[in-house]
Amino acid sequence: MEEDKNKFFSFYDQFAENQDKPGINSRHLNILDKVKDAGLSANHSILEVGCGIGILSHLLAKQVKEGEVFAVDISPESIKKAKTLWKDQVNLKFEVSDMHDFDKLGKTFDFFVFPDIMEHISMDQYDHLFRNINKHAHQDSVIFIHIPSPRYLQWMIENDPQKLQLIEQPLDSGDLIKSITSNGFYLEKMETYPIFFEEKDYQYFVFRASKALVNSTPRKKWEILKERISIRIRHGIIN
User: Fold this and answer.
1) Are 76 and 83 in contact (CB under 8 A)?
2) pTM for the whole thing?
3) Cα–Cα distances in Å, from 78 out to 32, 75, 89, 112, 192?
4) Residue 102: which of 64, 133, 65 has the closest Cα?
5) Has residue 195 got a pLDDT over 90?
6) Is 29 helix (H, G, I), strand (E, B) or coil?
7) Which of 19, 62, 81, 143 is the most exposed place for a label (fewest CB within 10 A)?
8) CA separation for the pair 203, 235 (Å, rounded)
């Protein structure tokens, strides 16, 4: 087990050498856009899990200028590089962690961002991981998860495996959702969409902390009417 763990860490230390060559790409920008759509505000605090050399971390930190980003990765080499690359961003901090023993006593985060990391984590670790996340959440916390779509990743495994990392597993969405909802969150949104390929190569989930509803707020009538008109026009319904 220790040998496997060291092999895993070593792979990502070497992987860090190539991460900054492409720079900011469409995947980073799509994740940023969808995190913002999930309600990210300028004063929010973010825990990013699996930050690599911090390219997305840097983009997130620019969005929360009154808040902070705390980014972790298992690779000491990646974190070392991230600290050098983004040393001028005062609201961006990095730390080496595999999240197993992560514990910031009394600290909570508004957003937990997992950018294409869950497919590299063994599913038997999910329950412990999200129990730990729940310890650092509050009643309005959001979990954002981005992964390669399982169908597309399976195609990659069978047809283009040399482009994959050390551990790549197509995730069963049901198992992922169950792990998170059993630890104090509910699924608000899930979407499979294309970034680099027409076959919809990525998928994302938005979870919010579970809390009882205290009231029920009717939608404005003009919003419902506008929606109905839009649907009728799109589908050619005239009656």
Assistant:
1) no
2) 0.86
3) 20, 5, 17, 20, 29
4) 133
5) yes
6) helix
7) 62
8) 27
